[in-house]
From TrEMBL:
Catalytic activity: glycyl-tRNA(Gly) + acetyl-CoA = N-acetylglycyl-tRNA(Gly) + CoA + H(+)
GO molecular function: acyltransferase activity, transferring groups other than amino-acyl groups
Protein name: Predicted acetyltransferase
Taxonomic path: Bacteria, Pseudomonadati, Pseudomonadota, Gammaproteobacteria, Moraxellales
InterPro entries to which the protein is assigned, alphabetical: Acyl_CoA_acyltransferase (IPR016181), GNAT_dom (IPR000182)
Length: 155
């Protein structure tokens, strides 16, 4: 299968996406386009080049200010949030979340070469997801399930 990860466009079928999580589904169906237009968050969708309107998965990126105590950094640290990440039920278990996460981290690394971004941030919804993200180099913070990875440590 030939994959493409590109910005959300009007031809992408947002209504047909179902990852099994109502909050993630609702965001993609009702809020993602508005957030794109207002530059609040940018949504990136994973599609199959043979059927580019079907969203297999997606993630969002937005700029945030990290407010945790990290030695050697100011009180407010510029960061990029991977805000939402989901894979449609039809494609789960195929490693697509890893593909999406790797793409998001690569994009953050590239952006950090032109703008101040010290960390990538992700909020795990539960302990299982927190442990999953730690396998990719994210480390916990004092803010519950908020995890971070130093942009310089992104491969």
């Amino acid at each position: 299968m030939n994959f493409d990860i590109s910005p959300l466009a009007t031809y992408h079928d947002r209504q047909g996406f179902d990852c099994g999580n109502d909050d993630i589904n609702r965001y993609l169906r009702t809020m993602a386009n508005q957030h794109n237009k207002k530059n609040i968050a940018k949504t990136h969708v994973l599609t199959n080049l043979d059927n580019p309107n079907i969203i297999m998965g997606f993630y969002t990126l937005s700029a945030v200010e990290l407010d945790v105590a990290i030695k050697g950094y100011p009180a407010k640290i510029p960061a990029m949030m991977i805000g939402r990440l989901g894979v449609d039920n039809h494609y789960q278990g195929q490693g697509l979340s890893k593909l999406l996460l790797a793409n998001a981290l690569s994009k953050i690394k590239r952006l950090s070469q032109d703008a101040g971004i010290a960390f990538a941030v992700i909020d795990a919804k539960n302990d299982t997801l927190a442990h999953y993200y730690q396998k990719f180099g994210f480390r916990p913070t004092e803010l519950g399930h908020r995890l971070i990875i130093d942009v310089n440590g992104i491969g």
